[in-house]
Amino acid sequence: PGTGSAAGDATAVAHPNIALVKYWGKRDEQLVLPWTDSLSMTLDVFPTTTRVRLDPGAGEDTVTLDGTPLEGEPRRRVTAFLDLVRERAGSPLRAVVDTRNTVPTGAGLASSASGFAALATAAGAAYGLGLDATGLSRLARRGSGSASRSVFGGFAIWHAGQPDRGGDPDLGSYAEPVPVPVAALDPALVVAVVDAGPKAVSSREAMRRTVATSPLYRPWAASSQADLTEMQEALRRADLDAVGEVAERNALGMHATMLAARPAVRYLSAATVTVLDAVLELRRAGVSAWATMDAGPNVKVLCRRSEADRVAGVVREAVRGGSVHIAGPGPGARLLDA
Ligand code: 2P0
């Protein structure tokens, strides 16, 4: 994060990230502590820009998203986050929060990751918390788990932290960059938006239900740890096929845990499966293409940047009417100059 925004008024930009080894399930809802480590790539598309301005005269926070006041649970999550920042800053001041999203909100395209990474960065500066990147990552985590990873650009690992070590459990759970030979890996994610509408079940509720009721949750969490080790090795040697293979199986396994929850959570739609078939066809034709899906029906296809146009063309045929975007590794959260 840079400097430059004035005290009491700061603007930050952050990008969404897509997990190659997923975060799914909390061991502590209050502190947003996950059961498993996760690993992601921050994108260079769909930035969120958030301005936080302290308002000494105001009796409550004002929160707008793309110019429209937030209400209900989304507003409550932002004000609860600001309460946490105020508590740390020792400040009673309310704030005016203005957020601009370029990603469809609530469609499993990680708008909460870019959103809370930008909010943590802007609010941290506006309230003068003086946090380093690790501290910002911990703070962003409290807003939304995946936001801890969007504080960093490129590839990032979010450490679950040790459950029963004593001490402050907040301190052990944060993200940090993973060094990856990006030029050799040449990664791209082709984002297939098959449905940009908001989801029926929030990822928060879906995770809760999965952990509480799915007989597949524990086996997946255990295998995810092995996936993480394999993923880190594959990234280190810039082996895109190995990265894709692990990412795809980790995501399908996560969705299996949800399908086995009671009642089931199913984010994958017929359009999702059509794209998955297209990805299989690409692989049969010798193209390295691997799919991952989050808390929604949209598909992100990992491939080589040099083959991304071809992959996007095939995916575009498959989605018909949806939109297709090509993303590469993007930057971490940063403050804009005032
Ligand atoms: C991830 N997802 O690793 C996983 C994979 C969706 C599927 O992180 O409850 O919005 O705010 O911590 O971060 C989406 O969940 O959830 C998510 P909360 P978040 O990217």
From TrEMBL:
UniProt domain Diphosphomevalonate decarboxylase-like N-terminal: residue ranges: 14-164
InterPro entries: GHMP_kinase_C_sf (IPR036554), Mev_decarb (IPR005935), Mev_diP_decarb (IPR029765), MVD-like_N (IPR053859), Mvd1_C (IPR041431), Ribosomal_Su5_D2-typ_SF (IPR020568), Ribsml_uS5_D2-typ_fold_subgr (IPR014721)
Residue intervals of the Mvd1 C-terminal domain: 190-319
A molecular function GO annotation: diphosphomevalonate decarboxylase activity
Top EC class, one word: lyase
Pfam families to which the protein is assigned, alphabetical: MDD_C, MVD-like_N
EC number: 4.1.1.33
Family assignment from sequence similarity: Belongs to the diphosphomevalonate decarboxylase family.
Protein name listed in UniProt: diphosphomevalonate decarboxylase
